[in-house]
Write a structure and sequence with these properties.
Layout: H1 2-10, E1 18-22, H2 28-36, E2 41-44, H3 47-56, E3 63-66, H4 75-79, E4 82-88, H5 91-97, E5 106-111, H6 128-136, E6 141-147, H7 156-174, E7 180-182, H8 189-194, E8 199-202, H9 204-207
Parallel strand pairs: 1-2, 1-8, 2-3, 3-4, 4-5, 5-6, 6-7
């Protein structure tokens, strides 16, 4: 049952860890069920799906976390409902998210590319300090910390330890308050917690298998 899977993970989490339940491809009914179970943080990766869901529940006390790759031309629309963007990975997106007139800053996590593949999303570790400086100076955003996904076939514990080290050695000297670490998903969240994750992005381990990706909102 949904409640059993949720409770099983909650029971292992230390205090201070934000559990983001990823509901992409799931209908709005699941969001209602999770809200009734006390979930307040939800993750979505597609604006065309996240936008209508956020509008559906505009009267509830939900925080929407955008966790997927975000096109710059959709940045303004996403910041209208999101409390945080976990996939900040390039200067053009940072510029699109800027808002000097914002009444509240948008939390942003810099996505770190841990691979040698330049085509994969994320900022290379060598570029992290300079990019963080730009983020700190950008109006309307608040640099929260780092986000990363463990590479396929890699040891997640080692990958997450590397992210923590990058935060401590590179990020904090630039942005002392950017202490958050968004890392850990359904298959590796325990390793992420042991390495100091503050935000977990968990989908199927709680929600069960996703419906067909061709999902369209009823």
């Amino acid at each position: 049952m949904l409640s059993d899977r949720l409770d099983a993970i909650r029971s292992e989490l230390p205090g201070g860890v934000t559990l983001i339940v990823v509901t992409k491809f799931h209908p709005v009914g699941l969001v209602r069920e999770l809200h009734a179970l006390g979930v307040r943080d939800f993750g979505e990766s597609r604006h065309q799906e996240a936008g209508p869901k956020a509008a559906e529940f505009a009267d509830l006390d939900l925080d929407w976390h955008f966790i997927g790759q975000l096109q710059s031309n959709k940045a303004k629309a996403v910041r209208a409902y999101a409390s945080a963007v976990h996939s900040l990975d390039r200067p053009s997106l940072l510029g699109a998210l800027a808002d000097p007139d914002a009444t509240a800053p948008l939390g942003v996590f810099i996505q770190v590319n841990l691979t040698e593949d330049p085509g994969r999303g994320g900022v290379r570790p060598g570029d992290l300090a300079g990019f963080a400086e730009r983020a700190v100076a950008t109006p309307g955003v608040r640099l929260a910390g780092l986000m990363a996904v463990a590479g396929l076939g890699e040891d997640p514990a080692r990958e997450f330890a590397r992210v923590r080290e990058l935060r401590d050695r590179v990020l904090l000297p630039v942005a002392p308050e950017a202490t958050a670490l968004s890392m850990g998903m359904s298959g590796d969240w325990r390793e992420a917690v042991r390495e100091g994750a503050t935000h977990l992005r968990i989908g199927t381990a709680i929600t069960g298998n996703r419906p067909d990706p061709a999902y369209s909102r009823p």
